[in-house]
């Protein structure tokens, strides 16, 4: 019992009065402040061990109570979004492995859904200034993951087959990596208060994604200046990019993140979609990947037309 009465040493990082581990007796439960048998009883000693070890309901409750609500909300939103992104890729990994869906189609469906679902998750985060940084953890972790597998530090054949054209790990360091970098840039620079990032991600994920899906199946009539692209694919990019951009802007403006004058906004969105489609048609894919040229072209035109925030 003498060991139970030994004073608790303070932890360097626990400097505030709300800290769980603190040397001051004022912050301890009443059972520890009282003298005599109560302070050295088995129940009190057990509670003290739980608090010091950071386990048990009292420790969890104390940590939850001391954390700001915004921090808890952003942490939960990050975990949920990360789990969703991982589950999406894994689901199409499994479908590709079982040959229930062809590799190119799987790759482009993941391409479309990843950006759309990531943007759709942004309202889950709080209104605090650090919310965008929590959201940025999701594409950042994907960047690390792609680097690990692309550099062959670890092997994941299912992932490679579901998100690459030819099933080579090195491909992860090109289109897929550029894609998540654009997600990272959009969330850090523009976030949900600006239509620029929303429109550029919509054109990259929805526009470019559907252009490939439709063009591969029905694109027999090629563009005269780019035999790798088709008229129907380019038309699909314009329509799908425009519609997805309008839908996502309606979604975020309806939640109050910015205001849109739809009388002018529709025309501006059409111009952004047209500019992104023209850039996607240009035969420079061997030099600049579509996952770079399309979103950054959309960002530039959207900035000229909308400004940083829409009114």
Automatic annotation (TrEMBL):
<keyword id="KW-0809">Transit peptide</keyword>
<dbReference type="InterPro" id="IPR039606">
    <property type="entry name" value="Phytol/farnesol_kinase"/>
</dbReference>
<feature type="transmembrane region" description="Helical">
    <location>
        <begin position="51"/>
        <end position="72"/>
    </location>
</feature>
<keyword id="KW-0808">Transferase</keyword>
<keyword id="KW-0418">Kinase</keyword>
<feature type="transmembrane region" description="Helical">
    <location>
        <begin position="172"/>
        <end position="191"/>
    </location>
</feature>
<protein>
    <recommendedName>
        <fullName>phytol kinase</fullName>
        <ecNumber>2.7.1.182</ecNumber>
    </recommendedName>
</protein>
<dbReference type="GO" id="GO:0010276">
    <property type="term" value="F:phytol kinase activity"/>
</dbReference>
<keyword id="KW-1133">Transmembrane helix</keyword>
<feature type="transmembrane region" description="Helical">
    <location>
        <begin position="291"/>
        <end position="309"/>
    </location>
</feature>
<feature type="transmembrane region" description="Helical">
    <location>
        <begin position="131"/>
        <end position="151"/>
    </location>
</feature>
<dbReference type="GO" id="GO:0010189">
    <property type="term" value="P:vitamin E biosynthetic process"/>
</dbReference>
<feature type="transmembrane region" description="Helical">
    <location>
        <begin position="264"/>
        <end position="285"/>
    </location>
</feature>
<keyword id="KW-0934">Plastid</keyword>
<comment type="similarity">
    <text>Belongs to the polyprenol kinase family.</text>
</comment>
<keyword id="KW-0812">Transmembrane</keyword>
<dbReference type="GO" id="GO:0031969">
    <property type="term" value="C:chloroplast membrane"/>
</dbReference>
<keyword id="KW-0150">Chloroplast</keyword>
<feature type="transmembrane region" description="Helical">
    <location>
        <begin position="231"/>
        <end position="252"/>
    </location>
</feature>
<keyword id="KW-0472">Membrane</keyword>
<comment type="pathway">
    <text>Cofactor biosynthesis; tocopherol biosynthesis.</text>
</comment>
């Amino acid at each position: 019992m003498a060991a139970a009465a030994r004073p608790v040493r303070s932890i360097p990082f626990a400097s505030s009065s709300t800290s769980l581990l603190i040397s001051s007796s004022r912050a301890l439960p009443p059972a520890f402040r009282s003298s005599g048998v109560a302070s050295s009883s088995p129940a009190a000693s057990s509670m003290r061990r739980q608090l010091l070890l950071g386990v048990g309901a009292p420790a969890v409750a104390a940590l939850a109570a001391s954390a700001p609500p915004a921090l808890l909300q952003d942490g939960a939103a990050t975990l949920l979004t990360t789990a969703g992104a991982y589950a999406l890729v894994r689901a199409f990994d499994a479908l590709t492995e079982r040959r229930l869906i062809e590799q190119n189609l799987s790759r482009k469906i993941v391409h479309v859904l990843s950006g759309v679902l990531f943007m759709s998750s942004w309202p889950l985060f709080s209104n605090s200034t650090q919310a965008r940084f929590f959201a940025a953890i999701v594409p950042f972790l994907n960047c690390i993951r792609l680097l690990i597998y692309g550099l062959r530090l670890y092997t994941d054949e299912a992932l490679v087959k579901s998100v690459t054209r030819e099933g080579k790990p090195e491909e992860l360091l090109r289109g897929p990596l550029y894609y998540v970098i654009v997600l990272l840039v959009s969330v850090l620079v523009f976030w949900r208060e600006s239509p620029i990032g929303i429109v550029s991600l919509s054109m990259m994920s929805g526009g470019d994604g559907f252009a490939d899906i439709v063009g591969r199946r029905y694109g027999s009539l090629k563009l005269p200046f780019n035999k790798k692209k088709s008229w129907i694919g380019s038309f699909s990019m314009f329509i799908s990019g425009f519609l997805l951009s309008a839908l996502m802007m309606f979604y975020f403006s309806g939640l109050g993140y910015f205001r849109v004058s739809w009388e002018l906004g529709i025309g501006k969105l059409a111009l952004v979609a047209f500019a992104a489609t023209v850039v996607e048609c240009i035969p420079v894919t061997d030099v600049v990947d579509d996952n770079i040229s399309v979103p950054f072209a959309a960002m530039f035109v959207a900035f000229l037309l909308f400004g940083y925030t829409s009114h």
